[in-house]
């Protein structure tokens, strides 16, 4: 890429909230307006989305899709996580592909990445908004040699890996909302959804799904979640390259996972509680068709959420709607 | 500590249920019950009983340094023939973990299976969710669903029977 092009991209990036006129660009870069126009056409070919409006000028409204299997593998410091990696521009859901690959025997650590999901999965069919190239939408196949009832611990472990990665990038501490949503203040930045195929005493496979909002502005998000969602960009004010974040998540995950398989859940529990959201606070709990107030104490030894009811009774929750 | 009356009550309930094995532990008292060919055998283990000590060294990880065991055998309830249910099904699909039972993949969609449906080994019959981990439960046997034992949204225990299947 030539330097004029780089300067042009820099100028457009700096002005990306507003339009910059062809005249201004041509003066800044010392090239003709026709040359500016030609550069714009080239940028479009490279995958930039260029808005050109008469009398207003140019604006870049979308960056090229830079994420690719090779951009993630380049510099990936893991032994097995992400060594098999599939990247798709658009899929319905990376989870669905994960299931297909797992059933065909794909090995542990196989990662499926997509720029865009048209039917991203949330809990119980809730949609996860996963727009093009603005976030990390990925799934990973796992085959842990543990009993199925322990598998939820892996989703808590993943939350710890995500929280640590996000903290090291943003330099601010996120919170983990039980079991595994990543929050900044009261806004969700990332979520995890895990699906498992298991027999009574053996896990066939797990498809671990991670969704993280990265480069969205709040206004890019659907209106109904604008007050409850956030992104790394919103928290830090900068755009992020996705590939290094993915690499860091995979490395953190692999480290915690290996440690968990060898030494158990205790270390995960401690780290989880370090990030735990609203520990010590009163919340309202709906579990097993009952609703009551309780105080969040922390995690039980097995990863259940430990709460204290007003009568002093402690309860371990495995599956509950918490009204935070 | 459980009262004799409570234990009696438990035995009765378990005897009438489809549960094969039952463990209960509280404040150092442990109650285990196991059914064998229709009987209820109850073992009660009192941990750290000061008087009777057993020589066998407990494993290091065990919280109790010494254990004594006494077995209380209750008379089984007048031998009711246990066949009252047995003829109706051949297999029970049980939950592999604690969690919420979901009969359908999404709240709005149809149930995975209904009573009377034929299932294969690989048929997904329900989801059990804990900590946002969704476990798709497969039938593991082929046959016909003759009974659904839990309701959508109900909390289920480890090992709790969910479906009855007739081969």
Write a brief caption for the model.
The complex is a heterodimer of chains A (324) and B (167). Chain A is α+β, with helices and mostly antiparallel strands.
Folded structure, characterized:
The complex is a heterodimer of chains A (324) and B (167). By secondary structure, chain A is α+β, with helices and mostly antiparallel strands. Helix content of chain A is 32%, strand content 28%. Chain A is built from nine helices and 14 strands. Chain A has helices spanning 3-14, 22-29, 33-46, 69-73, 94-103, 152-170, 232-236, 242-263, 266-275, and strands at 49-53, 57-62, 85-91, 111-117, 135-142, 175-177, 181-184, 187-199, 202-213, 282-287, 290-299, 305-308, 314-317, 321-323. In chain A, the strands form three sheets. A seven-stranded mixed beta sheet of chain A has the order 3-4-5-9-8-7-6, sandwiched between helices. Chain A has a five-stranded antiparallel beta sheet with strand order 13-12-11-10-14. In chain A, strands 1-2 form a two-stranded antiparallel sheet. In chain A, a hairpin with a 2-residue loop joins strand 7 (181-184) and strand 8. Chain A is globular. The N and C termini of chain A lie far apart (50 Å). The longest helix of chain B is centred in the first third of the chain and has 13 residues, at 4-16. A four-stranded antiparallel beta sheet of chain B has the order 1-2-3-4. A four-stranded antiparallel beta sheet of chain B has the order 5-12-10-7, with no helix packed on it. In chain B, 23% of the residues are buried. By secondary structure, chain B is mainly beta. Chain B contains two helices and twelve strands. In chain B, 10% of the residues lie in helices and 38% in strands. Chain B has two domains: 4-74, no CATH class; 79-166, RNA polymerase II/Efflux pump adaptor protein, barrel-sandwich hybrid domain (OB fold (Dihydrolipoamide Acetyltransferase, E2P), Beta Barrel). The A-B interface holds A 123-125, 148-149, 151-156, 178-180, 192-201, 206, 287-289, 303-304, 318-319 and B 94, 96-100, 102, 105-109, 129-136, 138, 140, 153-155, 158.
């Amino acid at each position: 890429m030539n330097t004029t092009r780089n300067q042009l991209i820099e100028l457009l990036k700096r002005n990306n909230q507003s339009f910059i006129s062809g005249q201004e660009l041509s003066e800044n870069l010392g090239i003709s307006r026709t040359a500016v126009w030609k550069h714009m056409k080239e940028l479009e070919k490279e995958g930039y989305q260029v808005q050109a409006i008469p009398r207003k000028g140019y604006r870049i409204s979308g960056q090229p899709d830079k994420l690719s299997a090779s951009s993630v593998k380049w510099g990936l410091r893991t032994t097995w996580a992400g060594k098999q990696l599939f990247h798709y521009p658009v899929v319905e859901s990376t989870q669905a592909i994960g299931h297909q690959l797992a059933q065909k025997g794909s090995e542990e650590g196989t990662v499926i990445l997509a720029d865009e999901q048209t039917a991203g999965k949330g809990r119980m069919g809730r949609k996860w908004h996963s727009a093009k190239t603005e976030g990390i939408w990925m799934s990973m196949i796992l085959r842990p040699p543990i009993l199925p009832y322990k598998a939820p611990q892996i989703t808590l472990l993943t939350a710890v890996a995500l929280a640590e990665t996000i903290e090291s990038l943003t330099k601010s501490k996120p919170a983990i909302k039980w079991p595994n949503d990543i929050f900044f203040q009261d806004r969700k930045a990332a979520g995890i959804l895990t699906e498992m195929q298991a027999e009574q005493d053996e896990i066939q496979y797990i498809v671990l799904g991670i969704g993280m909002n990265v480069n969205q502005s709040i206004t890019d998000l659907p209106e109904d979640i604008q007050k409850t969602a956030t992104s790394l960009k919103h928290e830090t004010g900068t755009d992020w390259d996705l590939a290094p974040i993915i690499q860091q998540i995979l490395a953190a995950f692999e480290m915690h996972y290996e440690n968990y398989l060898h030494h158990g859940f205790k270390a995960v529990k401690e780290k989880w509680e370090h990030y735990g959201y609203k520990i010590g606070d009163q919340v309202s709990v709906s579990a097993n068709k009952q609703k009551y107030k309780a105080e969040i104490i922390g995690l039980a030894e097995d990863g259940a959420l430990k709460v204290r009811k007003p009568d002093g009774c402690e309860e371990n929750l495995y599956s509950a709607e918490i009204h935070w | 500590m459980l009262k004799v009356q409570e234990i009696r009550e438990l035995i009765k309930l378990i005897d009438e249920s489809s549960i094969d094995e039952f463990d209960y532990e509280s404040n150092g008292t442990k109650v285990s019950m196991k059914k064998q060919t229709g009987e209820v055998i109850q073992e009660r283990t009192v941990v750290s009983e000061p008087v009777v000590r057993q020589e066998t060294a407990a494993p290091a990880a065990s919280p109790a340094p010494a254990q004594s065991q006494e077995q209380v055998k209750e008379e089984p309830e007048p031998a009711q023939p246990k066949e009252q249910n047995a003829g109706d099904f051949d297999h029970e699909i049980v939950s592999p973990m604690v969690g919420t039972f979901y009969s359908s993949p999404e709240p709005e969609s149809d149930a995975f299976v209904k009573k009377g449906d034929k299932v294969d080994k690989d048929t997904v019959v329900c989801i059990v969710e804990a900590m946002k981990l969704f476990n798709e439960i497969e039938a593991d046997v082929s046959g016909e669903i003759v009974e659904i034992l839990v309701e959508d949204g109900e909390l289920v225990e480890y090992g709790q029977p969910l479906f009855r299947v007739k081969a």
